[in-house]
């Protein structure tokens, strides 16, 4: 439940963001907007509220899915066409996003009897200077809401002859035959209609007979229908595993190696690549696996860790956020 004091503080912090610049591999910088801690708590409540009405069924990576599943989806294809969206989060049209959110909320009149201007409040408290910022808890879901509409447009052009999937802002289209140029032009025109722009540096089409394409850092061997790690990554981690096994007091490196070994089990199962068998055995001699402990029951208090505790209710009509009076908006001190 949200009190009047909490809403007052959140509205004052609606534009309180901290900008951080992260360098990219190509020399450019990525701008990350970190919200105020109090604003971030409120945005997490909005995220839990939106998850009741929106589901992410089309794009990978935004709903507890891995890049391995994204790459494995195209294992049985011969031709793979890939393209990324340039400045995807900052290119989201807020008017289109507000329209989609309001249309979706209007489908639940019984659950949300007083839903007028609710979409305006959501957009105002989750955006910054007219853009969808990277770094907020609500941005991935709001981005996927618009992206799913674009996915439906692209899927309608490609299905059933080609497979279509998306990992965050990267699209992959694969099939047994190459994608015609007319289809590519129609796809890029649909991308422009949604306000996005394809990145020409990351647009490519590969024949699996000439080489295994790289999808999210994983090699997809369409001829043998498998997903493998690139040789460069195997060589890199082979040296790091040996280094960690010979330095038992370097706990940071040890934790990184443990995470890598756990991640390759999803790709190779219990049999890692031949180049990593000996270093992993040496690593396990230095750091043996702990004994299995009894886990918490899902019906116990510890097992219900992720249970939603917030009770959202809309008993009063919402004014427009630009003309809001908090005394009217919070008549009973609990508005959402």
Give a short overview.
By secondary structure, this protein is an alpha+beta fold.
What does this structure look like?
- The chain is α+β, with helices and mostly antiparallel strands.
- Helices cover 40% and strands 14% of the residues.
- It is built from eleven helices and ten strands.
- It has a five-stranded mixed β-sheet.
- A hairpin with a 4-residue loop joins strand 9 (218-221) and strand 10 (226-228).
- Helix 4 packs across helix 6 (139-158), helix 6 packs antiparallel against helix 7 and helix 8 packs across helix 9.
- The chain is globular, with a radius of gyration of 24 Å.
- Mean pLDDT is 82; it is low at 302-316 and 325-336.
Features of this protein?
336 residues, alpha+beta, three-stranded antiparallel beta sheet, 11 helices, disordered C terminus
Number of helices: 11
Q: List the strand order in the largest sheet.
A: 3-5-6-4-7
The helix/strand class is: alpha+beta
3D shape: globular
> For the CA atoms, what is the radius of gyration?
24 Å
Break the fold down into its secondary structure elements and pairings.
Layout lengths: L3 H9 L4 E7 L5 E7 L1 H14 L8 E2 L6 H6 L6 E6 L9 H12 L12 H9 L12 H20 L3 E6 L2 E6 L5 H13 L10 E4 L6 E2 L2 E4 L4 E3 L2 H16 L4 H18 L5 H13 L39 H4 L7
Parallel strand pairs: 3-5
Antiparallel strand pairs: 1-2, 4-6, 4-7, 5-6, 8-9, 9-10
Helix pairs in contact: 4-5, 4-6, 6-7, 8-9, 8-10
């Amino acid at each position: 439940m949200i009190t009047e004091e909490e809403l007052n503080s959140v509205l004052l912090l609606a534009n309180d963001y901290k900008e951080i610049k992260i360098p990219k591999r190509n020399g450019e910088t990525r701008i990350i907007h970190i919200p105020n801690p109090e604003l971030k708590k409120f945005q997490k409540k909005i995220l839990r509220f939106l998850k009741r009405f929106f589901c992410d069924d089309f794009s990978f990576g935004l709903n507890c899915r891995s890049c391995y599943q994204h790459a494995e989806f195209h294992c049985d294809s011969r031709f793979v066409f890939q393209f990324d969206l340039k400045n995807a989060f900052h290119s989201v049209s807020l008017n289109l996003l507000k329209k989609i959110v309001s249309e979706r909320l209007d489908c639940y009149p019984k659950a949300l009897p007083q839903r007028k201007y609710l979409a305006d409040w959501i957009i105002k408290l989750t955006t910054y200077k007219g853009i969808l910022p990277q770094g907020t808890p609500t941005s991935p879901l709001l981005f996927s809401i618009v992206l799913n509409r674009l996915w439906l447009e692209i899927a309608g052009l490609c299905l059933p002859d080609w497979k279509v999937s998306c990992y965050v802002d990267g699209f992959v289209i694969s099939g047994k035959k190459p994608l015609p140029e007319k289809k590519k032009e129609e796809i890029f025109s649909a991308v422009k209609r949604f306000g996005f722009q394809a990145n020409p540096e990351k647009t490519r089409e590969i024949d699996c007979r000439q080489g295994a394409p790289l999808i999210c850092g994983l090699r997809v061997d369409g001829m043998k229908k498998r997903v493998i790690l690139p040789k460069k990554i195997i060589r890199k981690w082979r040296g790091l595993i040996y280094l960690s096994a010979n330095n038992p007091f370097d706990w940071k490196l040890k934790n990184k190696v443990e995470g890598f070994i756990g991640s390759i089990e999803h790709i190779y199962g219990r049999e890692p690549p031949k180049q990593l068998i000996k270093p992993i055995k040496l690593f396990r001699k230095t750091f043996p696996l702990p004994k299995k402990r009894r886990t918490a029951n899902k019906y116990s208090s510890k097992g219900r860790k992720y249970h939603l505790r917030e009770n959202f209710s809309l008993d009063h009509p919402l004014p427009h956020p630009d003309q809001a009076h908090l005394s009217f908006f919070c008549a009973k001190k609990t508005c959402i």
